[in-house]
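Two quick folds needed for the group meeting slides. Do the first one here.
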Amino acid sequence: MINKISDVVSKSLLAVSATLAFLLCFLVVADVVGRVVFNSPVKGTPEIVSMSIVIICFLQASYAIRSGGMLRVDLFAGMLPARGRAVLAVFGCLLGAGFFAVVLYGGLDPLLHAWRSNEYEGEGALRVPTWPARATVLLGAGLAALDYVLAGLVQVKTVISGANPQAGAGS
């Protein structure tokens, strides 16, 4: 049940991040055209782009883990039998879950500070609040940690049963 919910959420967040990236292209083009043709760039473009890139990355993290597309090195895993690859995958999933759990934990205080102090990025005509990006990092990190735990459970079953390892948590 949780696997299906996580799958739907990760695919939905992937669609949101793809839409955001698509819309960001128009902003960058408008900024460049405004800068070159009218000598008037779109105000706040650097701030919006820098925050959007962080948001896009963390919205896609869950799907990358579930689809088996997260970065990994197969040099040593390729030399191991199926059960050895599964044990290595369990270890990798534990490290991944631990990493994203630390990101989640470490991001709580900055999010609360940004919310309470009304923290903004940028100066002048456009000031962008930082709390949406910070909240998205926490959401993405929490889902990524959950997906690594789910992927690790799949790999633990593989180690126990001796079956072929699966690529990701959603496989």
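Then this one, please, same format:
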Amino acid sequence: MFFYKYVLAIDIGGSKMLASIVDSDGNPAIVFRKEFSSAVSVSSLTEDILTTAKKAMDATKRKAEAIGVTIPGVADTIRGLWHYAPFSGVSNFPIGHILEEAFHLPVFIDNDVNACALGERMYGCCRDTDDFAWITISNGVGGAIFSSGQLIRGFSNGAGEIGHIVVEPDGNLCPCSHRGCLEAHASGRAIAAAYEKMTGMQSTAKKIAQLARVGDEAARQVYNQTGFYLGKAASYIANIVNPEKIVFGGGVSMDFDLLEGSIRDALDQMAFTTTNQGLKLCKTALDYNAALIGAATVAQTKGGKYIA
């Protein structure tokens, strides 16, 4: 059920922010983008959010009736708080109150991957799928799970945190302070670090993907190993919740074809075959705007509970 025709959608990522007015068909108007040099700056966060949001509000004739926000990390949807983000160090940031005070509209917030899953269920490749998992591969790695048509949130809104499944005991240090987490071995930053360790050259996940496509052996090895880690974590999801589909999103997933083979290899080795023979793997149908459309979906369906 849709409650609003037009929503000011704000997608806050680890190194960027997007804002647009999105209609009830999931179509964004002009998308405004704010890039951060490395990570979200806590000191300028309020100004950055309000400036980017105002640009989106002023650029279209669509009049927003509500605001939906996605945040990377743990969201307190009841109090409208960005509770915690390991990547940036943001904690207890009152984003709901700030936006309500500025725009006098109801505000709904959620974790970015939960929102992506909601958007995929409403507009993407899972419109007819009740049981699926959504995995984001970007600056970090996150997950969300739909079971029997419902988003699983967990006791403290922490369900689906696949990024902090340990895939390499005593492995790389994760921003969460543990070692060997999927996020520390399969995120965009982890891909760049693995390639630098292997070759001595600094690069980005996107550029390393391009190198892999033209035959760079080190780049191919890094993407194969990344895919295997993702498949290892995906096998845990498959064995525990038995989804029909696992959907991959986030910037790194745009090169899903470089990962899919080794993801499937890991699943073949580790997932319980009898119940997971029909498991489908797919890239998000919403591409780069998945979290932005997800932010709108959170508000349109009142998926986040905070109403200012």
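Slide caption for protein two: The first strand starts at residue 6 and ends at 12.
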